[in-house]
Amino acid sequence: MDFTLDRAMTEDELRAHLDSALTPALLMLTAHVTGDAGVLRTEWKPNRATLPASGLAPETDAEIRAFCLKRLAPYLSSQRDWAALPDDSLRESMCTWLMDENIEDAQALAAVAFTPDDSDPRGPEWNLDEIAPDSGLSAVVIGAGFSGLLAGLRLKQAGVPFTILEKSTNVGGTWYENSYPDCRTDVRSHIYTYSFVPHDWVTHFGRQQAIHEYLYNFAAKNGLLEHISFGTEVTATRWDESTSTWTIDTRTSDGVVGSAEAQIVVSAVGQLNRPMIPAVDGLDTFTGPVMHSAQWDHSIDFAGKRVVVIGTGASALQFAPAVAKEAEHVTIFQRSAPWLRSTPVLRQEIDPGERRLLTNLKHYRAYYRFSIFLPRLIGNLPAATVDPDFPPTEVSVSAANEALRVELTDYLTEQAGDRLDLLEQIMPDYPPAAKRIICDDGTWVATLKRDNVRLVSQAVQRIDKDGVWIGDEHVPADIILFGTGFKASEFLVPMTVTGIGGQDLHQTWGIDASAYLGITLPGYPNFFCMYGPNTNTVIHGNLVFFLECQAAYIISAVQMLAKGGHRSMALRPDVFTEYTDEVTKESAKRTWGWSKTHSWYQNAAGRSTIMWPLPARQYFERTSAVHGEDYHIH
Ligand code: NAP
């Protein structure tokens, strides 16, 4: 469904839906409309842990709602004329009121974190026809997922001819491929959305089908579908120095090979699309169905079946509870226990009154989003930072990390209740934030407590034709499900990328993928990555925001090429080396780089090629302008 705001909620309507209003958003909206920062009273300051809800006593929330209704009422008839943005000083007051610490970072990010409807401040303000009509520039984007569609839109807005090559038969990337039961995001829907394309989300955390529909509609509405060549996999790309052109070799799903040419290549192939199935002894002898979470076969009926689940990461914690409701028995193999964060609304729908406010009261959605997004961008990096004086251990790595460990331990303890045997099994033995902390509404431990579920705290060692072995015990199984994640560190595999002088990207990288800001690298001119190395986030930042930063950087680079009449730009090796050294050094200070626990955040050499280790503000600022001096430009 397209999002449309009639922006004319009357006083009666607001009164009718007032109980659904979340007071942090309502108060900031009231400050915006009345211009009175004084309404952001200290005693009404929200609790950061409960945002977008205030975390205040119900009677205080009721008092705030009544206060806001009274203050807003005289202005409601003129909603269409409300200013688009708060002034700088009011925005500053909002940041200070919302955030307890990192005020400077919050102020720096606040302008991009407040996203009123119909505003797209980071779209290109130039057009190829105007700045370089004879440039002949064109682009190929590889992948039509969250990042490739965004790149396509930006190129379209800038008037750069482009094609998107997509190996699947539909858009959405991982949100098309992963269709396992109960698949959903663990990031709140309103911030798992392009900042300039709001949506009337039904659930707090978007379900896979809803996210896929959102992306499809985005592509359709923006005229991107006609630029996509579906069922077309890129097998190789080669840079030709004499013509400053990339040749892109393709193969269709029917095996037809082809090729395309473009000056610019944007690789938007994602990180989580090559399933990892461990080489377990005897797996090939198993006679029943074997399925990875990303390759779900919906024709399989679990009723009356004995199922084995291998892995307890984000995917398994979603599909295993659903499977356990249908299967006769489920045995879950857990190599490492996940840390869980209490998220009561994880599977809940957004209250209908709240949705009315989000769609019909001007700016309410923007402040609702702001109240989630800004704290999330800032996140809690100190809680993932190693303090050498602490001293760091595999229990916790700093005082802030220890505080987080205590909070998460309390949650697991509460979940286990009197099942102390289970508590011992579900308690992680590594510091929080060494890998993804998984959102939970109580479903996981409730599943483990079911009579038909058994948790085995070890990796599976041996499989035979009709079951798995736990030491000397044979556990019969009809179906094996792998929730074992993806080959995330193998960036851009399996296509080959050949740059200047015939150098091969995978040989250049070895197992240590790196790219400047996750986007460019020396020797591969005009080749841009989205969601490239070290651009993932765990405890701070936001994936979609980072994609928007990458798209803005790439489109500015294209502008620089076009405006200057240049043919190519290749990152300077010294810029690359300095950046890679910095990221390696900073990653080692974070739990995910420091901890020895298993994680897809580290590659086989123990280096983190996945996560962004610095504050989100730095990613935003470093990607906001392309510095020509960082590149060899021809
Ligand atoms: P994952 O987080 O990498 O989890 C893989 C699981 O399989 C872990 O429990 C891992 O154990 C286990 N495993 C891996 N290799 C194994 C082996 N050889 N033997 C036994 N166990 C093994 O994968 P995922 O759950 O598919 O999630 C990947 C990422 O996708 C997530 O981190 C998240 O970013 C994203 N995702 C998000 C959502 C969401 O938004 N809710 C849902 C799904 C996925 P160890 O922990 O010991 O390595």
TrEMBL record:
GO molecular function annotation: flavin adenine dinucleotide binding; N,N-dimethylaniline monooxygenase activity; NADP binding
Source domain of life: Bacteria
Keyword annotations from UniProtKB, A to Z: FAD, Flavoprotein, Monooxygenase, Oxidoreductase
Keyword Secreted attributed: no
InterPro entries in the record: FAD-bind_Monooxygenase_sf (IPR051209), FAD/NAD-bd_sf (IPR036188), Flavin_mOase-like (IPR020946)
Residue stretches spanning the membrane: none
Family of this protein: Belongs to the FAD-binding monooxygenase family.
Name by which UniProt lists this protein: 4-hydroxyacetophenone monooxygenase
Species this chain originates from: Rhodococcus koreensis
Lineage of the species this protein comes from: Bacteria, Bacillati, Actinomycetota, Actinomycetes, Mycobacteriales
